[in-house]
Amino acid sequence: DAMVIQNPRYQVTQFGKPVTLSCSQTLNHNVMYWYQQKSSQAPKLLFHYYDKDFNNEADTPDNFQSRRPNTSFCFLDIRSPGLGDAAMYLCATSGGNYNQPQHFGDGTRLSIL
Amino acid sequence: AQKITQTQPGMFVQEKEAVTLDCTYDTSDPSYGLFWYKQPSSGEMIFLIYQGSYDQQNATEGRYSLNFQKARKSANLVISASQLGDSAMYFCAMREGTEGAQKLVFGQGTRLTINP
To answer: Which pLDDT belongs to residue A67?
Structure first.
């Protein structure tokens, strides 16, 4: 089945130690999104790639970066994680048809020690 | 101003009863789409149903239907014959326009608990 896969499912890192979360898709969708979701809150869009074009949300901290080396893969890099960055990180994809839903991965739950 | 408002932080329903989850939205764009997602405690976001602003009929998908009242700017989710597995967080989300990436704005969610 075509899908969106996030690795790892759970990630623990130390305060200030860089961490990378990965997302891959077999849907061949041209748009990939990264969301941050803190406990009991709505998902918040951090940025998205439309093909190779990177689009950052205005309030996304500089600490968060992303890379998309090819259509299938997208990475979320947190350069110096703080305690406030502990959250669920959701990757999603969408194709060119605007009335089709975004497809989400299962998420990576990030803990900061 | 909130673009998507879900006024029910939590709801408790008896198994097999129908349940309505409220969602109101605010937009000046004539072209928009409304989505409902289910998020179980395991964390994945599961797409349930979609309603486009120009759709003439209310969307239905199995036990899910969307009560779309455009003039009132509401898009309530109706779940018929609720099941224990329906217990989850439910999010209403809106996409504005049809150009570019399909950016979604989410409501704060409603936590639904189905009691046996």
So the answer is: 96
